[in-house]
NAD-dependent protein deacetylase
Amino acid sequence: VEPTAPPQTLRECTLEALARYIKDGRAQKIVVMTGAGISTSAGIPDFRSPETGLYANLARLNLPYPEAVFDIDFFKKNPEPFYALAQELYPGKFRPTITHSFLYLLHQKGLLLKLFTQNIDCLEREAGVPGDKIIEAHGSFAKQGCVECKKPYPQERMRDAIEKKWVPYCLDLSCNGLVKPGIVFFGEQLPAEFFENNSLPAQADLCIVMGTSLQVHPFASLPQMCERETPRLLINSEKVGDMGGRPDDVLVLEDCDSGVRKLAEACGWLEELEALWATT
Ligand code: APR
């Protein structure tokens, strides 16, 4: 017997139908999953876009392959390439985008259950989203420590090292291990809070995926953890992951900032959103 498709939650898979679903108050627990694509308009390159992505612009670092710059085993042998790049990635120089402000607006309206981000630029926090609403799945530059003895390393000294592009070493001279920021390298475990919260997509009544290629697991499997009848919205330049494969998936295949403006307008929130962003 053919498995019966779950009843459609949205009458049609359009932004307008999704906006009605939100305005009818049927989206009270929204989970959002974001990647580097929401920060490109802030001036931070993403990783995999053909010309502009970070991985297409690392030739000067003589890496065996682009992702090596974030590989823990490569880093332990050759920390220089990462520290040559870290200065460009270090938070503090960039302004949040209107997409970041939209995340804050969802929180202000009491609709944001949890934001899972892969980004290390801290722009979600700078846009106003409270820390307890954010899961920084790939860590952040907020902390740093020794890769050998795990002893924490002072923030000021790390800032200095990054500014001057020199490689910081553990302050415990008996250890003298390499110091690394708390961003998750390939080959490292994601933070415990990712696994403690990855049951939340199954509790959500709306899932929004923005600015990610959904190429890196386990983060990339989050959208699939939503219930079948939970509408899922993708705002992204290109179709990614299994998005579009479910009856209530809505695809907005365009720039995040313009997709977010369209959704806000359909919800009657555009003025509020623009005003919020103008103060960021
Ligand atoms: N608007 C909409 N989509 C965009 C925009 C934009 N302005 N800019 C880029 N994109 C899309 C790209 O088309 C791509 O699908 O966002 C996605 C970015 O994908 P990646 O560059 O792979 O970035 P991300 O998904 O965050 O990478 C995941 O890979 O290297 C690791 O740890 C790193 O967290 C990172 C992870």
The radius of gyration is 20 Å.
